[in-house]
Design brief:
Radius of gyration: 24 Å
CATH superfamily of the largest domain: P-loop containing nucleotide triphosphate hydrolases
Shape: globular
Order of helices and strands: HEHEEHHEHEHEHEHEHEHHHEEEE
Number of domains: 3
CATH architecture of the largest domain: 3-Layer(aba) Sandwich
CATH topology of the largest domain: Rossmann fold
Structural class: alpha/beta
Low-confidence stretches: none
């Protein structure tokens, strides 16, 4: 039987697409309203309409999460008290790691998730070694190399010898050249996954399926962040399922970002800030906010810079066009040297550079040297190598 797509009600289809794009697995609707989509191959269950792919994804997540929740971890006595700098909520979260196999730690930017982990790891190592008479194997993982290496930088150096730092793609042996990822087993004693809200459904299912029952896992994340681009939001679903112990760290410890965080929270709650017409935006009016060209060779600095956030990549107001216009306007001014912000877009283990890391390009108008500087590297890198 052939199906005529013209008979599908566009509002329902568009609503389903928007819902899955915003992190949901499906759309709540009446069976009558979505009958034609069901006939076209969508799945309807318990008042919710799904694309078949996301339905299967969610069902697999439910099975894996239920199985994982049945595991009972051996309680490890702490060898000493927690760091006194931790607040009460952070201490509760830290203590839970010694008693449970899976922990969800959620909180907004600056709530202290990373600080809590930096205090946990040395304590976990000594406590584990005392109880089991061997050193623990610890894994730090995240969706992006930038995120996992940022987390690793917060860990005391003395503890890093026992810690593996990897992206989830590498842990799970996911490669672009493979149609299906190779089966792998993640058998570390403690696994800490950062930016969990960015993990898509397929990757979360693959990760949960790779875990050994004896491993302890901590998922760090902020459900208010943008959902995975592939659709579905497994971290959010895990929080709502109440299958695992969950701790929430309220507030923000970053005073310098308070205004930005408050504004983001208002947007999330549907409160729109005052805006101006886009055509009133003139780059020339804000040019003075950027580093100006100078005659003497400057020392690269990595302090917080003025930035423009665009929701578009291309077009007259896209990030590419705006960046080019700003660079050309500054280049026309007097002064030989110009510090230009740059961002890495590909991982390079030999150079210790990872997707998303920021640095500065020391642009020399006379072309004598074109060097890139990064805050974590002692020496600059020739721009031609990037």
């Amino acid at each position: 039987m052939s199906f005529k797509w013209k008979t599908i009600p566009r509002p329902i289809l568009e609503s389903l697409i928007r819902k899955t794009s915003s992190g949901a697995y499906g759309l709540e609707c009446s069976q009558t309203d979505c009958a034609s989509l069901i006939e076209a191959g969508c799945v309807y269950e318990n008042g919710t309409l799904y694309f078949e792919r996301f339905y299967k994804q969610k069902k697999e997540l439910e099975i894996l999460a239920q199985k994982r929740s049945s595991y009972r971890a051996i309680e490890i006595p702490r060898s000493e008290e927690a760091d006194p700098r931790l607040n009460q909520e952070q201490k509760k979260a830290l203590e839970a790691v010694f008693q449970t196999s899976t922990l969800l730690l959620q909180g907004g930017p600056g709530s202290g998730k990373t600080f809590t982990i930096s205090c946990l790891i040395p304590l976990f190592i000594t406590s584990f070694e005392t109880f089991f008479d061997r050193k623990p194997r610890i894994l730090l993982a995240a969706q992006t190399a930038k995120a996992v290496h940022h987390l690793a930088k917060q860990i005391p150096k003395g503890a890093m010898d026992q810690i593996d730092v990897e992206t989830l793609h590498r842990v799970l042996r996911i490669s672009k050249g493979l149609k299906a990822p190779l089966k792998t087993v993640v058998d570390h004693d403690l696994i800490i996954v950062d930016e969990s809200s960015m993990i898509d459904g397929d990757m979360m299912n693959l990760f949960l399926n790779s875990l050994k029952p004896t491993s302890r896992v901590i998922f760090l994340g902020d459900p208010r962040q943008l959902p995975p681009i592939e659709g579905g939001a497994p971290f959010k679903w895990l929080l709502q399922s109440r299958l695992f112990e969950t701790h929430f760290l309220p507030g923000s410890m970053r005073a310098e970002n308070k205004e930005l965080i408050d504004q983001a929270n208002r947007l999330f709650d549907g409160v729109m800030p005052p805006t101006r017409p886009l055509d009133s935006f003139q780059l020339e009016q804000i040019l003075s906010r950027f580093d100006q060209p100078v005659d003497l060779r400057p020392t690269p600095n990595f302090s917080s810079r003025y930035k423009i956030l665009s929701s578009m990549r291309v077009g007259p107001y896209g990030s590419i066009e705006l960046s080019n216009r700003i660079f050309n306007l500054l280049k026309e001014q007097k002064g030989r040297y110009l510090l230009v912000p740059i961002m890495i877009t590909q991982n390079s283990d030999p150079m210790q550079l990872y997707n998303g890391q920021e640095g500065v390009h020391l642009f020399d108008k006379k072309g004598a040297e074109q060097l890139a500087y990064f805050p974590h590297l002692e020496n600059p890198i020739a721009l031609m190598l990037l």
